[in-house]
Amino acid sequence: MVMTQPRIAVVVPCYNEALSIQLVIDEFKTCLPEAELFVFDNNSSDDTAGIARRAGATVIPVKLRGKGNVVRRMFADVEADVYVMVDGDATYDLRDIRAHIDQLLAQRLDMLVGCRRDDGSNPQTYRPGHRLGNLMLTGSVAWIFGGGFTDMLSGYRVFSRRYVKSFPAMSQGFETETELTVHALELRMPYAEADIIYRARPEGSTSKLSTLRDGWRILGTILKLFISERPLAFFGLLALVLSLLGLALAIPLLLTYAETGLVPRLPTGVLTTGIMMCAGLSLVCGAILHNVTTGRREAKNLAYLAIPAPADR
C-alpha cells in the first residue's frame, strides 16, 4: 500500500545551543509544519532545553556526553517513517527540506546527505582546516569502503525508517557521522547527496568542534571500521608488508649461504623467521575474521530487510 502521508520526525542533537535552537525550531515549523520536533539535550549547562520546550519541541535529555550517544537515543526512542537529523546550531538552511524528503521517498532512498555549500557571508563559517580534514577523511572512507560521498561529515541527513532501525550505533562522539556513512556503504543501501547552504552561526554562538582532536578521533574510527568491516583486506595488507620486510632481511642471508654454506648472522635469521610467521598468522586471522564479519553483515542485512521500504507500509 503506497504511503501518502509519512510520519516525519525531526531529531536535533543539542549541547549548549541556547542562542540558536529557537531559530532551528522556528525554521522547521515554517518549512515542515507537519513534522514532530524532538530536541535531544546532551546535558547542556545553558537553557537549551527550556527554550526548545517553550518553542513547542519535545525535549529528551541524554546524560551521556557525545553526539554518538545522542544518535543512539534518537534512533531508539523516536518512531517515524522519515527522520530528519540536523545540528541545533542553525547553520543549515532548511528551505529545501521538503524537496529532500520527496527525493528520499520517490527514489526509495535510505539516506540523503546534505553537502555543505558556504553562503559566503563569513570566511570562518566553513574554515579551510575543516574543509581539508573533511576532504581527507571522506577520501579515506571512499578508498577503503567505496561509495561516492563528498561530504561525509555533514550534520544534515534524511533517513528512512529501515535505515534508522537497522543502525547499530556504537560510537560516542562526533565520529558518529563516519559510522552512519559506513553503515550505508556496507549494506549497499541506496543513498544520495544534495547541496545545502551552510550559514554562519548566530552571533555569540561557538562551535563545539576541535579540528585536530575530533579529526584524530574520526581517523581512529575509520581505522577501527577498516579492521572490523574489512578484516581480510586489513590483515592481508599487514601480511604483505611483513612478508616484504622478511624477504628484505632474508635475501642477504640466502646469498651468503649460497656462497659460503654458512649463516653467520643467526639473530637476523631468527628475526626473519619470526616476521614470516607473523605474516602467516596475520593472513589466517584475516581469513577467520572475514567469515565472522560476513555473518555479522548478513544479520544486519536481515534486520534491514525486515523493515518496509521508504515508500511502502
Protein architecture, described:
- The protein is of the alpha/beta class.
- The chain has helices at 21-31, 48-54, 67-77, 97-106, 128-145, 161-164, 176-186, 211-229, 231-260, 266-305; strands spanning 8-14, 36-41, 58-61, 82-85, 111-118, 157-160, 191-198.
- A seven-stranded mixed sheet has the order 3-2-1-4-6-5-7, sandwiched between helices.
- α8 (211-229) packs across α9 (231-260) and α9 runs antiparallel to α10 (266-305).
- The protein is elongated.
- The termini are close together.
- The model has no long low-confidence stretch (mean pLDDT 87).
**Helical residue percent?**
40-55%
What is the helix tally? 10
Low-pLDDT segments, ≥5 res? none
Largest sheet: 7 strands, mixed
Content of β-strand:
5-15%
Number of strands: 7
Shape: elongated
First-residue to last-residue Cα separation: 6 Å
- Quickly give the structural class: alpha/beta
Helix-strand pattern, N to C?
A: EHEHEHEHEHEHHEHHH
Rg = 24 Å
Spatial order of strands in the largest sheet: 3-2-1-4-6-5-7
Estimate the mean pLDDT confidence: 87
